Every structure is written in C-alpha cells, then in structure tokens.
Amino acid sequence: MSLADLPEWVPAWCVDQLGGEPAGVLFQLQQISTVVGLRLADGREVVVKARADDGRAASCVAAQARLAERGFPCARPLSPVVGVGSLAVHAEEFRPGGEMLPGDSPDVAVRYAVVFARLMAELAGVTVAPPLPNPRWVRWDHADSGLWPAIDFLDDRDQGAVPGYVVDTADRARKRLRAANLPCVLGHADFEAQNLRWHGRDVWTVHDFDSLAWQPEAALVGAASGAFAKIGPATLAPIESTEAFLVAYQDIRERSFTAEELEIVWAASLWPAAHDARWDALHGTLLSGNAFRAQAAERLRRANA
C-alpha cells in the first residue's frame, strides 16, 4: 500500500490524534480489523487500527493501555478510540521484532501457558466495562436463535455443508458451557501462536488485544489451551498438550480448578475448533477437521457433555 492508497480519513486523523501526518506505509493487514503501519513525518513509527464499531474497542484499548503501563509485553496505545463514521479507530506504538514459536508439543504448551497465566493475572487487576459481545469464535454465550452466533456472511451459505459431527460436538459443548454458573473475568480470547512474538525463551510481544473477552476463567483457559499452536490454518492442539497447558496454568496461578471448572476447560477447548471447522466447511475446505474429529469424543467425555 502506498500513501495514495490510504483511506482518505487517515492523514487528517493522524494529524489530529498523533500530531503528525503519514510520510510512508510500513505494512498493511486486513482481517477483522484494518491494520496499517505508518511512518510519520517526524520519524515516529505507529500502527493505526480500524474495525467496525461494535462497542468493544474502548474497553479493549483501555485494558491494553493499563497492561503496557505495568510493563506487560504489548504495544502501548497512543490514542483513545475515536469514531470515524462506522469505524472505531485507535493508534498504538509499532513494536516490531521477535519470532513466532511453532509447535504443539506439551513442552511448547507449557511455554504458552506461562505467558497466558501472567496475562490473566495482570488482567485481574484491570477494571473496564466488559468488552461485549465476545469475539465470534468464542461466542458460545450468544443469545441468537440457533446453535451458532449470527454471522451474516456465514449464515447465508448452505449450512448442509457443515458435517454433522461438527454440529453435534458444538451443540454438546455449548450446552455444557451454558449450564455452568461461574463468574466472568477479563481475558484474551485469541491466544494463538500467530499473535505472539518471542526472543528466545522470552515472550517479546502479545498482540491482538481487540480480542479480549468477558467469560469464565476456565472457558478462557480452555480456548487458549486448544488454540495456542495456531499459525495460519485452523488447528487443535493434542490432548496431552492441553493437559500440560492446564497443569502449568494452575501451578503458576497457584490455584486448582474445581471439578466443574475442569469440565468447562474441556468444553471450551472445543468451541473455537468447531467454529473453525464450520468456517472451513462453508468455505469449501476442512483444514481443521482431522484433529477436531479425532479428539471430539474424548474432549466431550472430559467435559461431561
């Protein structure tokens, strides 16, 4: 992307919020949010993020700012969330460098669990309005009709393409999750390898605080313990790696989950995988289908679902 290709509101927004106009484009990413890295005229390098304004962004950015202030390894927000038409926009520091940590072995799972436990402990001291609705891939707690949360561009497709075992597993996992009576906490709901960078054995940056959620701690741990290895195509970590993640997390937090919480961990580990399997099926592939299908019965058994 060149400067000429930037959305027309970006230069004036940068002058207003950051005190400088763009002089160069470092990178551009387009997923749920539009993310643009910019070099300003004074030499500063910043990242501007814009996403549809669903009411979540202000809480997410406020929480990220407090983590950065406390020294947690994440980008420091440089502006509040500002409405631009239907978009919620903010800027944060550019924090380049580091490498992804690939793999889904129990040893790798423990390394991710250490970071997740630290993150959850830090977030426990942050008070913001709950960032609702929760991200769609963990939104088992939705109030929409039917099994899945309403997502127009998926719901308009032929649902017959979704395999029956995906629907059945999602239904059983969701019923178990919804039957729980556990308090909600603030947590990271997209804790995947592609959203972290490392320097050797030390985490350098945790990204994607747009994906904070308000759910029971066990559900957040469950989602992370199944998805931590995801880089690109959807995946589900081996059961022994989820076990290792769970043990390490509890050790670091110095608390043991109750029997009910352990069941919720296993149920919640299935929901993002079910979402991904549905997504793949509705887009003509089943990239996440093999691990999901192979593990579903055992994870449901452990969830008492």
Tell me the layout of helices and strands.
Elements: H1 10-18, E1 22-30, E2 34-40, E3 45-52, H2 57-69, E4 82-84, E5 87-93, H3 106-123, H4 152-155, H5 164-179, E6 184-188, E7 196-199, E8 202-206, E9 212-216, H6 217-227, H7 239-253, H8 259-282, H9 289-303
Antiparallel strand pairs: 1-2, 2-3, 3-5, 4-5, 6-9, 7-8
Radius of gyration: 19 Å
Query: Main sheet?
Result: 5 strands, antiparallel
Total count of helical runs of at least 4 residues? 9
Helix content: 40-55%
Instruction: Name the shape in a single word.
Output: globular
Number of strands: 9
Give me the strand/helix succession: HEEEHEEHHHEEEEHHHH
Mean pLDDT: 95
Poorly predicted runs are none
| Structural class by sheet pairing and helices | alpha+beta
Provide the β-strand percentage band: 15-25%
Could you give the distance between the termini?
48 Å
Instruction: For the largest sheet, list the strands in their spatial order.
Output: 1-2-3-5-4
Question: How would you characterize this protein structure?
Answer:
This protein is α+β, with helices and mostly antiparallel strands. It is built from nine helices and nine strands. The strands form three sheets. A five-stranded antiparallel β-sheet has the order 1-2-3-5-4. It has a two-stranded antiparallel sheet with strand order 6-9. A two-stranded antiparallel ribbon has the order 7-8. A hairpin with a 4-residue loop joins strand 2 and strand 3 (45-52). Helix 3 runs parallel beside helix 7 (239-253), helix 5 runs parallel beside helix 9 (289-303) and helix 6 (217-227) packs across helix 8. The longest helix is centred in the last third of the chain and has 24 residues, at 259-282. The protein is globular and about 60 Å long. 43% of the residues are buried.
